[in-house]
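#random but structural
TW: two for the price of one
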Amino acid sequence: MDAKHNIVDDLKWTTVTSKAYRKTAPRIYAQAYKVTKNAILDAADSFTNAGGAGGIRYYDRLHTAEKEGKLWSFPFFTDQVRGFTNSWGDTYVGSTNGSQSIGTELLKNVAEVGGAIDSTIAQANAALEGKPGALFEPPKFYSYGVSDSDAALEFTLINTDEEEDWRDNYDTIKELIKINRFSRTDGFVAKPPVLWDITIPGYRRIRWASCGVTISLLGRRELREEIIVPEGYRVALNFTSLYTEPMEFMEQFK
């Protein structure tokens, strides 16, 4: 049987049968992408196209990939929809405030010489004036580190409602495991797992994410068709953003 990509509408993650409830149930949309080009070649292209399109289009071109299967729809009842921090670092390593330097080598070299001179003069003036010391603080650069929290979700798939439910649930779980693992195609050649395009309606867009999968067996279990089948599955998915997410990603939400 085929995996069910629209889990919210098609699988038994709830005992509620109302179509109206399922239609309005909160969800995450996720599209898997199969990488079709070596990352080293994509890196070379990204430098060539660095001055091209901005916003989301810039991130679209970071990976050469094609859609893998249909759009997924996962139940989403997690409280935290996003979290991030901002970091600013020093323009040179000789700063007195102890922050990490992120300036270029040229800027650091120039600033270190100028900073050393300024600091020496400031310390000398402080000594002449009978003051305990001097402090020189440079301007800071924004640090573009990836600080966005993961998009995490959990849901339960129920195998005890109707006899055929377990097979649909199992096939879907099997598909999630397969596409999120690398494949060894020929000798030392390996293909990476899929990348994901994630949307949390109204709050977040992740253009490229990796996915961690945890599957737990719940309740009594038995062997069917050489498969261990429990009363239910607990599915936990953790989507990790590969890149810093700019403000333009929020512009799709009106």
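TW: number two ↓
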Amino acid sequence: MFTTGFKFFFGIAAALVTASVVYGYSTGGGGVGPVTLGWKGGVGDHVGYVLLFGLGLVASLFAFALVSFRDADHAAQAHYLGIETVAPTTDVTGTLWPVVAAAGAGTAAVGLVLHPAVFVVGLALTSISAISWTMDAWADRATGDSVANRALRNRVMAPFEIPIAGAGLIGVMVLAISRILLNASPNGAVFFASALAVVILALGTLYAAKPDLNKKIIPSLVLVAVAAVLVGGVLAAIDGERQFHPHDVHQTDSHSEDGTSE
């Protein structure tokens, strides 16, 4: 019986191998070259063909490894380890890191066309997602207690995730605020900066005065404020900066350029 993990990776492998064959024929492959790895004919563009076929081969290796160990089934692990039983584990918890990784990969692909900075952002998102996703998978199998698994995962990753997330959020907020200020009129920029300062002061005062307030209220208000600033920053960046007119330079002396008095 084929396991779920085998079906998933085998499907990916089949799709990649099929894509390599289609890519080979669409880039100049002839005869049965793309089907026979170039034994009877050309394979078209070698780089793309080898990349797609190689990824398909890697996915197939994962598929056969998973079906051999029955997707890490307890009985299969005990059989291959030569022991009676293995430590129980908890069910795998859901995570959003695959979604973030997909978004990062898409951003990196777009950045190859638009701008190197966009590519770097996408690459950073993908790298962070890969690390955090790996740690989630490791923690899920660490013990049989889901609470202990989560605490173990946070103990390892929190010293890295919290500073990085805080620095990233601050950087994004500063960028969004700068776009709004550069887009607004001079008076509008002053009004926005003043309103933002009042909101920050009000939230801080509310939190200090009511520490026992419902813990969901303050984070919700902060989230609404942050979302509003981010949306405003995106809209302002799309609209562009306002026109800046340099002030006329007036001569302060009473002499003309030729040195004579006016």
